[in-house]
Amino acid sequence: MPPEKKNDSPVALEQRELSADQRMFSPSVARNSAPILAVLKRVLPTRGAVLEIGCGTGEHAVYIAGAMPHLTWQPSDPDADARTSTTSWIKFAGLKNVLAPRDIDVCSGQWGLEQPGHFDAIVSINMIHIAPWAASLGLFAGAGRSLHAGGLLLLYGPFKRDGAHTAPSNAAFDAALMERNPSWGVRDIADLEHVGGAAGLILRETIEMPANNMLLVFSSGSA
Fold it and tell me: Which Pfam family would be a valid example here (predicted)?
């Protein structure tokens, strides 16, 4: 069914299409889903449970889980419209390995998860730069509780290295983010490493991605 109308989410940086069944369509997901999946196929386990933080439209959830059917994918988002869209995408795709989206706010000290150390991996795509620094702190703290030893935290988006942007376009993007909300912004890898260390997470790999993005791979406990 083709998109019918526009949807402007308060945390979205793009105009999204909305179908009659409440599925949102993100232009950025259409661009980056294939490169992200290629990396996830390499770094994620072949089986296990994955928690997605900030699932947005839900398109990444069904795209990745559809290509990796032996994973159980748990999407989550604090935004009700995002969860509605994700639920509709799950129904549309007919996937049995994608669970109903959870309402998780990473800034909350409690994520409402039943079992600490349950997840093999946590994935967050294009989230921490459109959220306050407290969201990064909460994400790492929650990942430290929710991952089992050797579990992975995967972060995708633009990042700074040692205080410097990796491309002029990222510097302009960072300025636009902070103009929109002073608490937002492109995060520095060194700062994330420091926060990760406090939560027992170590940066294992930094993967260059298209359009001046990166995918950071942190691991919990012993490698």
Answer: DUF938
Crossing angle, helix 27-43 and helix 59-67, to 10 degrees? 40
3-state secondary structure labels for all residues of 43-99: HCCCCEEEEEECCCCCHHHHHHHHHCCCEEEEEECCCHHHHHHHHHHHHHHCCCCEC
Measured distance CA(96)–CA(46) in Å, rounded: 16
Distance CA(87)–CA(102), nearest Å, equals 10
The CA distance from 109 to 5, in Å, is 36
Q: What is the rounded CA–CA span in Å between residue 173 and residue 186?
A: 8
Q: Where are the beta strands (DSSP E) in 126-200?
A: 147-157, 159-161, 164-165, 187-188
**β-pairing verdict for 147-157 and 5-7:** unpaired
Comparing CA positions, the residue from 120, 143, 140, 114 lying closest to residue 72 is 120
For the chain, which residues score pLDDT lower than 70?
1-17, 114, 222-223
Query: At which residue do the structure tokens 């007919």 appear?
Result: 94
- Residue 2 has a pLDDT of 41
The per-residue pLDDT for range 32-71, each reduced to its tens digit, is 999 999 999 999 998 999 999 999 999 999 999 999 999 9
Q: Domains of the chain by range and CATH? A: 29-220 (3.40.50.150)
Report pLDDT for 12.
53
CA distances from 176 to 13, 14, 147, 215 (A): 10, 13, 34, 22
